[in-house]
Write a structure and sequence with these properties.
The chain is an all-alpha fold. It has one domain. The chain has twelve helices and no strands. Helix 2 runs antiparallel to helix 11, helix 9 packs across helix 10 and helix 11 runs antiparallel to helix 12. It starts with a helix and ends in a 15-residue tail after the last helix.
Length: 326
């Protein structure tokens, strides 16, 4: 029932992007998306259960229309590398196009849904999209390593080992948990090391409301690229200094840095205290809230995420409970 409700909400947002773009863009980028990182940190399994795109792309399997082909671990590794590269290529275009153009955003969602459905017709369960090609999946792996509880699996009633290792049911899953080939190694490195700096750089770029041009695209990529490169080099350096034994702590630190950086800029923007005028505005509270209250909220969010991801003692849990094997 929750899946259906969230799917219908997703459908309404999609239609609003076409027929009422200002409202659709507001709900998608300034309500739904700002909640997602915190949800992935606390309960990644909940998002994996109710994601409307996942519900859509898994319809061929639920309706027994899939060919149920087993994806090889090597292909899955390649697609996971494609996913993180796609994330870094798509997100900067939000400033140049998607943040202000409802039709373009609807087209982007359509391409993602059609691609996922086609993969679902060929490959079994989540291997075709959710655990391989989805650009959100790298963020799930980085933020969701210390969730609060394992939830029942709302999609898979039986395990067919479609993805090995399974991200949903492997305790303490993170981007560097598997490094059996160069694709997996690079995927983990780009996700862990690059994301914090990429997020910082993304928030230094203003939205553009005019026609998209090559110059605007280059401007949209410049800050995120240099931020990505800086944090990636820092991660590689620190990894060499601390050695393999403390690598897991370093990964948690970079995960906390990424999500904290997101909310450090996102909370002020949502409430009208953005340094880039009204980009990302949800509700203008400048005449209501003092500036120190916004600073307090951002500091508290940073302290929370570092405590949750780095310092909190928690047992290794999986996002969802593993169903029985076939």
């Amino acid at each position: 029932m929750v899946q259906l409700l969230v799917w219908l909400i997703g459908l309404c947002i999609f239609l609003l992007l076409i027929f009422d773009p200002p409202l659709g863009l507001l709900i998608l980028w300034n309500i739904l998306i700002p909640v997602a990182p915190a949800l992935l940190v606390v309960a990644a399994g909940l998002w994996r259960n109710i994601c409307p795109l996942a519900t859509t792309v898994l319809l061929p399997r639920h309706l027994n229309l899939s060919n149920k082909k087993k994806m090889s671990p090597l292909l899955q590794s390649k697609l996971q590398l494609v996913a993180i590269i796609a994330l870094y290529l798509i997100v900067p275009v939000r400033h140049a196009l998607f943040n202000t153009n409802g039709m373009a955003t609807a087209a982007l969602l359509t391409v993602a849904a059609v691609t996922g459905i086609l993969m679902g017709f060929r490959y079994d369960w989540k291997s075709g999209w959710c655990s391989s090609l989805c650009p959100v999946h790298p963020v799930e792996k980085l933020y969701g390593s210390r969730i609060i509880a394992s939830l029942p699996n709302a999609h898979c009633d039986r395990c067919v080992k479609c993805s090995v290792p399974c991200p949903d049911t492997t305790p303490g899953f993170h981007p560097a948990i598997t490094r059996k080939n160069s694709y997996q190694t690079w995927s983990g490195l780009l996700t862990i090391g690059g994301l914090p700096g990429f997020i910082w750089g993304w928030f230094q770029v203003p939205d553009h409301t005019g026609a998209t041009s090559l110059t605007l695209l280059l401007d949209a990529y410049a800050y995120p690229f240099f931020g990505f490169l800086g944090s990636l080099l820092l991660f590689v350096l620190l990894k060499r200094l601390i050695g393999q034994q403390q690598e897991r702590v370093l990964i948690s630190f970079f995960a906390a840095a990424g999500v904290s950086c997101y909310y450090w800029f996102r909370i002020p923007a949502l409430l009208g205290f953005n340094h880039l005028e009204k980009d990302g505005l949800l509700l203008d509270m400048r005449g209501v809230l003092p500036e120190w209250s916004i600073l307090s909220m951002t500091i508290l969010s940073t302290l929370f995420f570092f405590w949750w991801l780095v310092f909190r003692k928690s047992g290794h849990r999986s996002w969802v409970l593993r169903p029985v094997y076939v």
